[in-house]
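Hi,

Apologies if this is the wrong queue. I'm a grad student, and the batch job for Alanine--glyoxylate aminotransferase 2, mitochondrial from Timema poppense produced an output file that my downstream script rejects. I'm not sure whether the problem is my script or the file. Here is the sequence I used:
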Amino acid sequence: MYAYGLNGHLWRGANSHESDRFVFSLTPNPTNLGSSYEKVLNIKEHHLFPSVTPYYKKPLLIHDGKMQWLFDHKGRRFLDMFGGIVTVSVGHCHPKVTKAAVEQMD
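Support response: The file is valid. Your script probably expects a header line. Output copied below for reference.
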């Protein structure tokens, strides 16, 4: 499954161009699945103060984010309804923002 976006659509701008189109996969990167769920739970149990420990039995373990989507350790996709300061406007790992960051770091 693929998602297509235009700058004009994402930011409600009036001057979008076909060349601004980007494509990204809505499946998580299998090499980006990180540590096992059990390992993360063990780390959480031994290193977080009880006051910051979540009260639910099985916490959500996010491993990847693309635009407005988050992916857990099983590859399930979730719509990010919370976001953060920047993800509200550009999403997680927006291709243009990622490209600009890499260019600045090189």
